Amino acid sequence: MRKYNLENLIKESYMKKIILNLLLLFTLSHIMAQSKKKKDIISIKEMCGCFEVKFSFSETFGNLNDETYIPSKNYTSWGLEWAQLIGEDKNSLSIQHILIAGDEKEPYIIKHWRQDWIYQNTDFYFYDFDNKWKYTSKNKKDVKGQWTQKVYQVDDSPRYEGSSSWVHVDGKSYWENYSSAPLPRRELSKRKDYNVMFRGNRQEIKSFGWIHDQDNKKIVRANNEKDIVIADEKGYNIYKKVDNKRCIEAVKWWDNNKTKWKIVRDKWNEIYARRKNLALHKTVNKKPLFMYLFDKNLTNEDEINSTIELFLIN
After folding, report:
1. What's the average model confidence in pLDDT over 163-183?
2. What is the mean pLDDT of the chain?
């Protein structure tokens, strides 16, 4: 028979308490993480629906000692936009934005940008410059509890992405990150003096909808050279939620076109799964990719896939 003395009993009791406390701590930590994740998902879904949108951008500082430098004019535009949740599982959400232009009774529907949110993602395509993205794999511990926002062009090719934690504090819910991106379309045809927009993005959920607050830098980037910042820019986009009935034509358009765009997304996902640096032609036969994909007659899966492949630079 095993003999116990007082000292052994005390040691065993102490060890049991330590183990129980560790198990309790682990359980509480897991419950808190899951509760936080649910709050994150609720915030992301708040960006779905029908919105009146106001886009505003203004250069704030010129950073070159160049008296001939001409800043971009202040830019403001308005629109009606439908944000459709097109995919969801326990660790990801995908939101397709669709613009509604012209008369709301007889609108012109335009497929706009898409944002995917992935929990604790480790695979990244970070924009470099000149239509090139660098594939990067991160360690799981470096993205613990974080969400990656992946932003895509209207043709579902990559734009920019970054990983950060959603923050819920003092009645606020927001996510913010810094990431390099191609020039925005509003500048693409007007500015040739810089080639990277370094974006400071903040998505914040509001009682009326949400805002996309930006602190951007216009950068000249080249291989093996230090970035040159030529100007700073402030962006402030307001998404005001309105009755979903106002976006009904966008809902119908997506229902009629979602099969085609799933083919497009699946092809891009196959390309991203190759996990290597990516470079794209800006045009093929003087046409950008979106002009090919926006063609209503292009619906065949093989033709869609081969069209996208034409734009890949091996």
Report:
1. 98
2. 93
